[in-house]
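Quick question, first post here. What does this chain look like in 3D?
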Amino acid sequence: MDVTKEIDSQPLSQAFSFSKEKERAMNGLKGILSGIVADKQLNEKEFLFLDSWLKSQQYLAEDADVVKILQQVGDILEDGQIRPPELDIMLGSIEEIVSARNAAEPGVGQVEELVGFLTGVASDGVLNDQEVGALSDWLDQNESVKDIWPASVIVNRLNNVLEDGIITEEERQDLLQTVNQVTGNSAPEDDISYE
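> Answer (accepted):
Ran it through. Tokens below.
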């Protein structure tokens, strides 16, 4: 009896690898979407980052939510201008997708989701108080990853920032630098202290 070890003309190991990468990418997308709307706004830099990220994700090319977002992005960019009402519509679509995915997949891929969240929050190069609060809330809701890198590094920095109840610009910049280092958006000479 000949048993074929292929799925869709790919070796079985590649098919499972693709499935795992798609799952990781979906968790990252969920985090990114949550991160870019953490402050209940969507600005032009975040929008363009999202467009670029979505187009780079081969594993998500056939996901209905991704196709929907890409179509909306294409419609918005068609005239070369991004208007505030268009960003509001996109914000609503993103919040719908995040809500649906939160209900469907509780606790799945939390580390990938956190990295996506961090990437989304920092995608415009600014970390405001609402985003810091949303990050703190995310970590409180996902306590099972608080001791796992990179969450452990973020928790440490976040505790330092929030301990006196006042977020200074210096603390905000330090946290943003840490987020950028964790997500790979920093200069190579930057180092993270893994305290």
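The two ends are 57 Å apart (CA to CA).
The first strand starts at residue 6 and ends at 7.
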